[in-house]
Predict the structure.
Amino acid sequence: MSMIYFGNYLERAMTIETRGEKLAGTEKLVAAPITNDVGFLLAKLHAAGSVLNNQALAEFDLKERSYSVLILANSGLEPTQRELADFLSLDPSQIVALVDELEKRGLVVRAPGKQDRRAKTVTATPAGAKLHARASEAAARAETEALDGLEAAEVATLKALLRKALWGHTE
Amino acid sequence: MSMIYFGNYLERAMTIETRGEKLAGTEKLVAAPITNDVGFLLAKLHAAGSVLNNQALAEFDLKERSYSVLILANSGLEPTQRELADFLSLDPSQIVALVDELEKRGLVVRAPGKQDRRAKTVTATPAGAKLHARASEAAARAETEALDGLEAAEVATLKALLRKALWGHTE
DNA sequence: TATGGATTGTTGTAAATGTCAATGATTTAT
DNA sequence: ATAAATCATTGACATTTACAACAATCCATA
């Protein structure tokens, strides 16, 4: 059960030769009917943004995965690992590894749940909060870059539609 | 360089117990600021749709990957493997494996490129066209299900915005 | 209140996927 | 002609994913 249409493999030559003929091959297939498939479009735009995101986060020794856990640890919502797994659609064992790493770096702490001692809540330390603040600026720049083909109003519309599709409310 | 925010792990119990309390934990985190991150929203909606897609395609012994190759082989555009790799953001070696499997099943054929005999174009056989026709219906149903929170006009808007973000044109 | 069943975090493992370098055949450039 | 680049392919290795098993804890109910 593969998770994604495709990956983020990028032609190495493209980074230095990003102009014309190289993209022609890519553009040619834009005419294919698969570009009417929303799942395909979501995957492709996500893959493109993902590269920029990970580049921006590498400076802080974070990846999208660990960054998203760090955000949620900073949210004040005191998520448990199970909640993180559900929300991020990750296997609980992957959350263990992510939290292990962040905790080892002193960015988050585990605490037993107040009502349920089996559960462990993940909250950010001051160091985690500081890193999150810096990383989120870089991530915001990466998002802007990934969506630079859209006007600000269009980005807002896109966000609203995605939120509505996911949770049924546009606010 | 990880490709995705997260995966498509799904709570097994959710398939039989899809009503209330199970989702409450998930809903709680919707308040977190990460839900304003377009990359996150793209990843999450894609992951959700991906599960439905793969379920729908399993009937035809296809996954999203092989299905997308099958679509492009059916497009009449005669893509080369290199073009497939670029368009799907996959390493050329993964294309080899995907085409190998489809070719073994008699769904596509490789042919040397007309101008460039190094390149191999991938085109669908009649059997491939037939399977594609059936699979695309199932995939369309899965997409409808994944986006059932949106009106038809909203889906159209979403599609247009994604296309514009990717290729700079909305048509 | 005791007992069985479910849930949480955790560990470990096998399969799938990603990454990358090397190769022969062919094309392109000089 | 010769050198450099490109294409498909193979293979080696790292990372990610999916899943089963387990102890600790909670929950329902008898």
About this structure: The longest strand of chain B covers residues 108-112. DSSP finds seven helices and two strands in chain B.
